Amino acid sequence: MKILGVSLFFFIFLAPFAFVTVQAFTGTYGINYGRIANNLPSPDEVVTLLKAAKIRNVRIYDADQSVLKAFSGTGLEIVVGLPNGNLRDVSADGDHAMSWVQDNVLAYLPDTCIRGIAIGNEVLGGSDQFSEFLLGAVKNVYNAVNKLKLSDVVQITTAHSQAVFANSFPPSSCVFRDNVVQYMKPLLEFFSQIGSPFCLNAYPFLAYMYDPEHIDINYALFLPTVGANDPKTKLHYDNLLDAQIDAAYAALEDAGFKKMEVIVTETGWASHGDENESAATVDNARTYNYNLRKRLAKMKGTPLRPKNVVKAYVFALFNENLKPGPTSERNFGLFKPDGSISYDIGFPGLKSSSADSLLLSLKDNRGCGWCGCYSIILTMATAFLLVFSR
User: Fold this and answer.
1) Where is the signal peptide (predicted)?
2) Among this protein's residues, is 261 annotated catalytic?
3) Catalytic residue among 122, 132, 189, 213
4) Count of domains observed in the chain
5) What is the secondary structure of 274-306 as a DSSP string?
6) Residue 81 belongs to what domain range?
7) Number of other residues whose CB lies within 10 A of the CB of residue 240
8) Which residues of the chain have pLDDT under 50?
9) Residue 266 annotated to the active site
10) For 160-203, how does the pLDDT look when each residue is reduced to its tens digit (9 = 90+)?
11) Are 76 and 113 spatial neighbours (Cβ–Cβ below 8 Å)?
């Protein structure tokens, strides 16, 4: 009877997880929850907002304790970030990496559904201040995750800007910049070994702002247009985002990583800008983000990789009033700091009259998924074994 009990325990409780491949992004639509602001709703209110909007995939740029606690038991799937400023220390010391993972990931599992760790953000292709530390940090964090038996639960990635590319149009001509290759190639080799995707921050808004004379704004906004053809592949593109994604696929193939998936970790459109940012308008932001939602809902690939369903995290959840740079940088939010919508693309805003009752309802009815059900499963499994071991 004990053998039968153990066998039944495995097939009922463990079999669903026995062949899990780690995947940080389980849908097609996610959002970046940036917090460079002094006027944002509390993390608990953010949970209410995300639940109401039915947005499940969330990225943050650190591992803030208040956010991770608020997300506990909600079923929301979160990618935490190791900030660029931590790369040097984590790269130099495996014990430091282990402590960081224990304090910022393990301590919150399984109740908070942490699905990934983003090691830095847009490290390569810029000032090279942190470039030499990126691979070491990635390896040390992965080793820590692996030692803690979390490598089938938590995916390791890093996001790149388009500054890592040269000759990105037409898409088939895209390659990695010469000064990036020395860092990118070994990083891609390691990601290929552990099954991580190539994460890209892709902004048709920025591309259009850089070259408005040669880019049709309708092409950038997913609106009807003549589009663009790639003379080498003979593929036709009816929107700029698809072309940007396929440019990344072309660069990966040129570097020897044809099978690696591309995931868009940031994309969006500013709703307000400076005088020289005329494309940053509410109408354009609404159009881009509404059409992006429709594009992702189709669950289809790109012209070059039609079988690879496009997944994207929108930037961003809120306008962030303390971000430096041009006005546009502070106006990418789908929502205003008070939780109301910046413009209507089909999401409800945070309504104070019902926020408290909705929040209580969410806390009482915890999300279920792997992380939400894990504690229940262990409890039931223990009881099951006790019965059959007698």
Assistant:
1) 1-24
2) no
3) 122
4) 1
5) -TT-TT--HHHHHHHHHHHHHHHHT----SS-T
6) 29-335
7) 26
8) 1-20, 352-390
9) yes
10) 999 999 988 899 999 999 999 999 999 999 999 999 999 999 99
11) yes
